Amino acid sequence: MWAKDIEIPMVAREGEYAVTTARIMSTMRRGLGVIAAITAVSAVAHGDSRKPAADEFDVKAVKSQLVFLHDGRGHYIAVVPFDDKAPVFYGDGKTFYLQRVFGYSHDQSEGMESLTYWAPTSVPRGGELSLEHGRWSVRCSDRRTPMVKLDETETSKLLARAVFKKWLWKRQAAAIGRDDDGTYYYVDRIRDDRPASETWADPHPPTGFRFFIGRKGKLREQTVTDTTIDSKGMVLISKAGNLVVDDATSRLVWAKGKKREELVYLPIDLNALLIYRDLGLYGRLGTPCDDL
Fold this sequence. Notes:
Blueprint: E1 4-7, E2 10-13, E3 16-19, E4 23-25, H1 31-46, E5 67-70, E6 76-79, E7 89-91, E8 95-98, E9 101-107, E10 112-117, E11 127-132, E12 135-140, E13 143-149, H2 152-161, E14 163-165, E15 171-178, E16 184-190, H3 196-199, E17 210-214, E18 220-222, E19 224-230, E20 233-238, E21 242-246, E22 251-256, E23 259-265, H4 272-278
Parallel strand pairs: 8-14
Antiparallel strand pairs: 1-4, 2-3, 5-6, 5-13, 6-7, 7-8, 9-10, 10-11, 11-12, 12-13, 15-16, 15-23, 16-17, 17-18, 19-20, 20-21, 21-22, 22-23
């Protein structure tokens, strides 16, 4: 209907094929219509070749093994039982985010396992997903939420619509201190989740420093114009002044013109709730402890 007597001879040259002539003889009602039709047929024949987005996580290797747990209120965890190498996800049933798991133990003969994941607002040990006596639960601080396993039918429906992504939270605390008036000086940076074998050999790892000053709930981001990093720590140069971070001696100094002020150095690992909750800078972190 659109074209006939199509002649496209192919010539092989040095292992490659090149189209030397392409002659389409016929009258077409609409040239653009022909192109659109051919494109549509090709898409159907070869399927969707869309590349996954940069933040998507490929779950092909574990998709058939994933078990979905839910609390009955729209919160889901995806896990492969008794596999400490498999990824763990948390989401709303449509979008799931990868979790940073840093601890795992199990006794498969007893049907028991436990994994701990990064959740800085869950103190003192992060969040925990556990299976005991056939029952799943999530612990966030002193709260424990029962989780129920989806049946096969519901699992199939969920998998048909679910999108799996890498970690939602892509930053981490770098330094924090305060003055005697309760004004905080806080620095965060890009979180590098690459294996140590890759980061060790990278002479220019990503940093992306951000610098904030203010009282709780009222911190304002400062414009960082330059950064110096060495074996002693770092210096963040901003329009408001310079923050000197000396990790070796646990010192923070705020320098503004000729004035230098010694700040109270606050260890990051002992101030998770302050950083991720009280300062008021961050919202959802993409972990089960956002909701449970």
